[in-house]
Amino acid sequence: MADVQQGQSLVPDLNATLNETGTEGNVTAKFVATPQGTALAYGSLVFMALLPIFFGALRSVICASSKNATDMPETITSRDAAKFPIIASCTLFGLYIFFKIFSQEYINLLLSMYFFFLGVLALAHTISPVMNTFFPVNFSIKQYQLLFTQGSGDNKEEILNYEFDSRDIVCLALSSVVGVWYLLKKHWIANNILGLAFALNGVEMLHLNNVPTGCILLGGLFVYDVFWVFGTNVMVTVAKSFEAPIKLVFPQDLLEKGLEANNFAMLGLGDIVIPGIFIALLLRFDISLKKNTRTYFYTSFLAYIFGLGFTIFVMHTYKHAQPALLYLVPSCIGFPVFVAKLKGELTDMFRYQENQEEKKASVESVDETKETELKKDK
Q1: pTM score > 0.70 for this model?
Q2: Distance between CA atoms of 222 and 11, rounded to whole angstroms?
Q3: For residues 97, 100, 104 and 110, what is the CA-based torsion angle, rounded to 10 degrees?
Q4: pLDDT confidence bin for 214, thresholds 50/70/90
Q5: Residues of 127-160 as b/e, b for ≥16 C-beta within 10 angstroms?
Q6: Where are any strands of DSSP class E within 172-223?
Q7: How far is CA 301 from CA 91, 297, 333, 335, 339, in A?
C-alpha cells in the first residue's frame, strides 16, 4: 500500500520536490526538519494510526454480531485476498498513467468530489455512536428508509435499502461541514479527520473469514508494496500527485509555522487498514476462545507499533521512502503465531472460521418478516 514518506506538501506546488520549499529569487532550498519537529510528526502519525485500528477492531466485534442488513460487514475470502494485489496493482498503474496523460488538476478535482461524498458518509457513520449519547431524551427520533428497487411484481429486485433516523441526519450535517472544509481548503487537519474515518470504517466493516486468508492477503500486499516502491517510482509518484484523504499527514515544521505548515510526513491508509483488519480478526478469535483474555489482539497491536516504528527508523537511516508493509506484515503475522505456538493454540488459530452464512440467513429471515408485515399493513 502507500509508503511512509518524509516532507511532502499536501497540495504540492508546480516543480516542488520531496522535502523542498520555495525561497526568494526562484531558488529552492532543501527543508531540514528539526529533531523536535520530526519526533512530533512521526509520533503523531503513529498515534493516529493506532486509533482506527484499536477502535475499529472493537467496533468490528459489534458489527460481526449485527443482524441489521445495513451494518453487515463485507467478508474477504481467500479468493478475494489472492486477487486483491493484482486489482490494486492495476488500479495503481492506471492512476499513474492518468496522471501522466491528463491534467493533474482536473483528475484531482474529480477525485476530490468523489472522496468528498464518501468521506462525509464515512465520518457520519464513525461519529454516530458517540453523537447518540449527546442527544437529549426528548429529542424527536423519526425513522426513514431509502429504498431503490428494479422491476415490478415478482421480478422486483432490491438495489438499495438503507434505514436511518433523524439522529443520522444531524451526524451527516456535521460531517458535511468537515467535508466542505476539506474540499475548499485541502487543510491537513480536515484531511486527517476524513482519513481516520475511512480507516476506522475499513477496519470495522472489512472482515477476514479466517487467519489463512489474512496471511494470503498480507503476503500478497507485502510483495505488491515492495515491488511498487523499490522496483518503480509509480507508488511515490501517485502518492505525491493524488489529492485525496487516503493518507494521514503531519507537518514536520509545525513548531515553526503553526497550522499553516506545509512540509509533511505521511502514512498511507492501506498501511493502517490492511494490518488493522488482521488485528481485528485476532480480537474476534480471542473472544471465540471464551477465556476472557485478549492475548492475540494485544500481541498483534504491539507488533504493529514495533513494525511501524522500525519502518520509520529504516527510512531515516537510508533516507528513502519505505514500503511499510515490508516491516508490518512479518511482525503482525509473526508475533501472534509465535505466541500461539508457545501456548499450544496454533492449530485453533488457523482453524478459526467466521461463518457469515448464518448471519446472512438470519438477516434475510428478518428482512422477509419485515416484507411480510408491510404487505399485511397494505
Answers
A1: yes
A2: 28
A3: -20
A4: very high
A5: bbeebeeeeeeeeeeeeeeeeeeeeeeeeeeeee
A6: 206-208
A7: 29, 6, 11, 10, 13
- Whether 225 is catalytic is yes
The cell numbers describing 241, all together, are 500527485
Check: CB of residue 6 under 8 Å from CB of residue 239.
no
- Angle, in degrees to the nearest 10, between helices 188-205 and 166-185: 130
Between CA 295 and CA 352 the distance in angstroms is 15
Residue tagged active-site, from 225, 253, 286, 348: 225
DSSP state of 20: E
Of 3, 253, 271, 286, the catalytic one is: 271
Neighbouring-strand partners of residue 149: 158
- pLDDT tens sequence across 59-68: 999 887 776 6
Tens of pLDDT along 227-245? Answer: 998 888 898 888 888 888 9
C-alpha separations of 349 from 26, 81, 212, 296, 333 in Å: 59, 18, 9, 10, 12
- The cell for 66 is 449485527
Query: What is the per-residue pLDDT for 300?
Result: 97
What is the distance between the alpha carbons of residues 309 and 50, in angstroms, rounded to a whole number? 12
Query: Catalytic site residue 271?
Result: yes
CA distance 199 to 185: 22
pLDDT (tens digit, 9 = 90+) per residue, 283-323? 999 999 988 889 999 999 999 999 999 999 998 888 887 88
Phi, psi of 84 (to 5 degrees): -60, -45
Q: Which residue has the cell 537511516?
A: 317
Q: Is the dihedral of CA 185, 320, 238, 88 positive or negative?
A: negative
